[in-house]
Design a protein that fits this description.
By secondary structure, this protein is mainly beta. The chain contains no helices and nine strands. It is elongated, with a radius of gyration of 15 Å.
């Protein structure tokens, strides 16, 4: 997907990807979601939500094995928690061949009830970009 007539701030081109996490692995970093969007893209927003108790669990979103966040997100029970994206745009952009993944990082006794990760992406480049 590539349309240089759309403005980067346009909501029309944004897509939301949802990853539900049902199993947490103790003392491990586990890939729980993996997708190839099919076009060059930029991550616009990452948020996590869990309905119940969170303990020893964080979430990281990566493009090609490199985090798009300044640090892993620690979910807060019954609260949408936004991740802080890296400042450099290059760190939030992926090519048509790069995978977008979600990893959970768990301590010895992880818990997280109904953990959901929502990632908002858009095509790159759009009007006025590269």
């Amino acid at each position: 997907m590539r349309d240089k007539r759309l403005l980067p701030s346009s909501n029309v081109a944004k897509q939301t990807l949802d990853a539900s996490v049902s199993t947490l692995t103790a003392s491990a970093t586990t890939k729980v979601y993996d997708t190839l969007p099919g076009f060059a893209f930029q991550v616009v927003k990452v948020e996590v939500f869990a309905t119940g108790t969170i303990l020893n669990t964080t979430v990281d979103v990566q493009i090609g094995g490199v985090s798009v966040l300044t640090g892993a997100i620690t979910p807060v029970s019954a609260t949408r928690t936004n991740g802080t994206l890296v400042t450099a745009l290059a760190g939030r952009r992926g090519s048509v061949t790069q995978a977008l993944t979600v990893n959970t990082i768990c301590g010895a006794t992880p818990t997280a009830a109904n953990l959901a990760v929502t990632i908002t992406i858009r095509p790159y480049p759009l009007n006025g970009e590269g």
